[in-house]
Amino acid sequence: MKSLRIALVLGFSTIILFGVLYPMAMVGIGKAIPHQANGLPIEKDGKLIGFENVGQPFSSSQYFWSRPSAVGYDASSTGGSNLGPTNPDFLALVQGRIDTLIKYHPKLKVEDIPVEMITASGGGLDPHITKQGALIQVSRIAENRGLEVEALNQLVEEHSESPFLGLFGPSDRVNVLKLNLALDELAANQN
Amino acid sequence: MNTEILGVILIFLLSVALAWPLGKYMVKVFRGDKTWSDFMSPLERLVFKLSGIDPNQPMDWKQNLKALLGINIFFFLFAFIALAFQSLHPFWNPVGIGNWEPTLAFNTAVSFTTNTNLQHYSGETGASYFTQLLVFCWLQFVSAATGIAACALLFQGLKNKTGSNLGNFYNLMMKSCTRILLPLAIVLSLILTINGSTTNFDGLQEVTTLEGETIQVAGGPTAPMVAIKQLGTNGGGYFGPNSTHPFENPNYLTNIAENIAILLIPMALVFAFGFYLNRKKLAMLFFAVMSILFIAFVAISVSEEMNGNPAFTEMGLAANQSNMEGKEVRFGPAASSLWGVSTTATSNGSVNSMHDSHTPLSGGIFLLDMMINAVYGGVGVGFINFFVFVIVAVFIAGQMIGRTPDLLGKKIEAREVKIAALVVILHPLLILVGTALASYGIVQNPEYGWLNNPSFHGFSEMLYENTSAAANNGSGFEGLGDNTQFWNILTGIIMLLGRYLPIIGPLAIVGSLAAKKPVPTTSGSLQLDSPAFGAVLISVILIVAALAFFPALALGPLAEYFTF
């Protein structure tokens, strides 16, 4: 009887402390910094157009493309491909992505394709590509938008992020959504 | 030097630097010394009073074990009922998610009770806010605290000159929650929120993309839950793909913080052992043995991932590229490998890259890490597992020099060695029998279609799932279609045995050691804090793992490696 009382009371009181009060308190504190607590949303003309760190699918020839995604950038049901490195289906998929890139960028050489542009991320929402991944797309966008190649290269350069504190982690990343927003702005100013 | 490698070194060094003071602090909490967190004591006293617990009542190992198992049964029952009838508690369920199939509810309830966090469901589509918080978030605290408390009981048992009192499980468990896990979780949660991890109850939000498409983005109280899943070696993510998701792990800084959180308490407990028993030199030796294995594993995994996939070079891609399938650009291959080794070493099980898509040797290292399951190890239980290896090593070293083995002034005799041997054998038994059953099942019935990858890699998927369950890890080669009755029941049973027997066995050992009369240390005693014993210890760990698991590893990751 005694141990039943202990199990029930200790059990339910820890549920209240750590299952209710702790998360509620953290959400409460989050209200003080709503922009961050809501996941860094980006709004344009009063409409929610995305989140800074959540990648979006870009398929039109007007925009820089994101990485391939195993879930098509579906942010309500995320995930990776979980395909192994020797799986023939996986290698065929990668070959298909190489072919697509070459098709839309006729001057592109296979050895210049950075690996992230032909592989899917773990969460399916990777917001970044490498600088090289953006640069190989410049010619296509310049042609489709009637913009200068030089101006676009410059834009990519400006959006290239350095490692954490300049010392730690991968260098030369580009946030595709931010880059495309800047691209729209650049195009609007030119016309 | 490569900035990615520098990042890896930074994370490791910061973890060690933070674990040292934390270890000191934890010892104060275990002993009940004065600390800054004493303001929690009115709250703790209230809970003890309501539940009729006397936190100062001394208990021997059997009474403590009864207390541990009793409260764990409550954990399981509450979780099972809440999951199986999820639709009946409609509040905090904005998307209206339904009841769970019984075997999935069983598997998940076991999984979170045992600190495993194997997830056969996907967070954002399968679990309501109620479930995420009142079941998962709660269990991530108390299951971790169960492990820490068990470890503190072990420390006391080893410290006892004579006497069977190991301390009070309820007291240790509650204080592990309120004074160790909670303050750390609050700090980490704040770091995450500030960096853009969602901390709200907004459900799905509609986004209109630049190209005019409408997409739904799931948010929720991510930051507080991610904080405790990292700290308590839980690993059960808020979202399906865990810390690869931008809301769980928004940038490189949060990745540093989360990776440190994986290692922090497991490392601190090794130091705590030294402070608690006043055997700092011995604790340093244990830490060195673990770290040698850890660093070797990290080095192999990082170099394999940075060398990339040879099959890509054959397609004409530049040869110096890394393996990025299942990885995020913001973390890169090196930080993904470090995380992979950290999470499998400590039985955390969270991921920041998809382990299924790692190159064969890197995936093999993750498997080996879980097969050893004592390199830092899960909160509390990791040190307990390591202690079992120490008993075996003491026994073997004693045999080699022809003396009765003794540990910390107590004789190790037949009873202790028998229990330790059984616990050591249990782990390969669970993994290999489980894998054999699964392999038989899929070969006889290919229509089950569990495997996402053919051939050797498919075998690795099944081996990984069983290993992860037995090690109470919770990560997966997630391509495996594991939400079937077969997998739910099989891994549920493996998790239960893999959790409780390795706690019961060592507690029985210290229970019997604690009651023994101390033997005087003489020049003939085995010197534990010497490099020679360290070498014996590493050999014992590697030989046990290699002998038991080499055939299975040869059929999976090694065979796949040689197909390149």
UniProtKB/TrEMBL annotation, chain A:
HAMAP family: KdpC. Part of the high-affinity ATP-driven potassium transport (or Kdp) system, which catalyzes the hydrolysis of ATP coupled with the electrogenic transport of potassium into the cytoplasm. This subunit acts as a catalytic chaperone that increases the ATP-binding affinity of the ATP-hydrolyzing subunit KdpB by the formation of a transient KdpB/KdpC/ATP ternary complex. InterPro entries: KdpC. PANTHER family: POTASSIUM-TRANSPORTING ATPASE C CHAIN (PTHR30042), POTASSIUM-TRANSPORTING ATPASE KDPC SUBUNIT (PTHR30042:SF2). The lineage of its organism: Bacteria, Pseudomonadati, Bacteroidota, Cytophagia, Cytophagales. This is Potassium-transporting ATPase KdpC subunit. Keywords: ATP-binding, Cell membrane, Ion transport, Membrane, Nucleotide-binding, Potassium, Potassium transport, Transmembrane, Transmembrane helix, Transport. The system is composed of three essential subunits: KdpA, KdpB and KdpC. It is a single-pass membrane protein. Belongs to the KdpC family. It is found in: Cell membrane.
From TrEMBL, chain B:
Coiled coil: none annotated. It comes from the Bacteria. It is found in: Cell membrane. It is a multi-pass membrane protein. InterPro entries: KdpA. The chain crosses the membrane at residues 6-27, 67-85, 133-155, 176-194, 256-277, 284-302, 374-398, 419-443, 486-511, 532-554. Keywords: Cell membrane, Ion transport, Membrane, Potassium, Potassium transport, Transmembrane, Transmembrane helix, Transport. The system is composed of three essential subunits: KdpA, KdpB and KdpC. Part of the high-affinity ATP-driven potassium transport (or Kdp) system, which catalyzes the hydrolysis of ATP coupled with the electrogenic transport of potassium into the cytoplasm. This subunit binds the extracellular potassium ions and delivers the ions to the membrane domain of KdpB through an intramembrane tunnel. Belongs to the KdpA family. PANTHER family: POTASSIUM-TRANSPORTING ATPASE A CHAIN (PTHR30607), POTASSIUM-TRANSPORTING ATPASE POTASSIUM-BINDING SUBUNIT (PTHR30607:SF2). This is Potassium-transporting ATPase potassium-binding subunit. It comes from Shiella aurantiaca.
